[in-house]
Amino acid sequence: MFEIIRANVPGKDTRIVELAPGEGSLTQALVDSGYNNVEALDINPQRFEGKGVKCRKGNLNEPLPFESDSFDLVIAVEGIEHLENQYRFASEINRILKGNGYAIITTPNIINFASRMRYLMTGFYALAARPSSEFEKNWVIEHIYPLTFWQLRHILHTNGLFIDQIETDHIRKSSIVGLLFYPFAYLLTWKSLAKEGDNRQREKNKEILRQIHLPAIYLGRTQIIFAQKRKNSYIKAT
Fold first, then answer.
1. What does the alpha-carbon distance between residue 166 and residue 94 come to, in Å, rounded to a whole number?
2. Alpha-carbon torsion (20, 24, 30, 34), positive or negative
3. Where would I find the beta strands (DSSP E) of the chain?
4. If we measure between CA atoms, which residue out of 12, 75, 89, 9 comes closest to residue 41?
5. Which of 14, 34, 44, 99 has the most C-beta neighbours closer than 10 Å?
6. Is the domain 2-229 a CATH 3.30.1450.10 member?
């Protein structure tokens, strides 16, 4: 994660905000490496331990308390799967980003091969391996809406955040056996996506087919998505 930021966001004056930073280890690492315009927002700012960084209180399920076109980079690590309205969250990220700004979104990867096998046998994905509690509404802890890669892509792309880079933090050893099934998975997915009737989406599906069979998605534990704010032509229902 940190290396992705350093490689793609070299300017030390870059205005950065981390959403839901927890105790603030990533935010602190950015400051310690020389980034001098870093902020944070968390529903429990009292937990934040970053030094020399302002952490204001905010709820990611609500409009973000920042002006439009404010930041060059927005970071949201392991947050989007906790939210009730993920499309609105992506729209808010777009709003507070400057033109051509970047967002880094991470979330558990529930379509790596091992997670697919878990779902086949149990009906539950890895890192979402049991039902959320019906007796406590604690969205800070619960993964209420884990996302497949294509769902996350749809959320981002339809809100003007276009994926440029896909990484992972760790290749799951339990997914390595999936390499034996890789040709079959690719072929079956291709056949399914090729049935799309909209020629525009069929072209997009070719890209999705390639992306979901990258090692980071097919084998990785976490989806790390680097996306850029760009104008989009998606038609939204009114």
1. 19
2. positive
3. 16-19, 38-42, 54-57, 71-77, 97-108, 161-167, 222-229
4. 75
5. 14
6. no
- Are residues 97 and 16 in contact, defined by beta-carbon separation less than 8 angstroms? no
CA atoms of 50 and 21, how far apart (whole Å): 9
Please report which confidence band the pLDDT of residue 132 belongs to, taking 50, 70 and 90 as the band edges.
confident
pLDDT digits (tens, 9 = 90+) for 95-117: 999 999 999 999 999 999 999 99
Query: What are 197's two structure tokens?
Result: 């009737």
Q: With contact defined as beta carbons under 8 Å apart, do 33 and 12 qualify?
A: no
pLDDT above 90 covers a percentage of the chain that reads 79
Whether the predicted pLDDT of 134 surpasses 90? no
Tokens of 157: 């792309």
> What are the extents of the domains in the chain?
2-229
9, 36, 82, 101, 122 from 14: Cα distances, Å: 7, 8, 28, 10, 45
- Cα separation, 199 vs 178, whole angstroms: 31
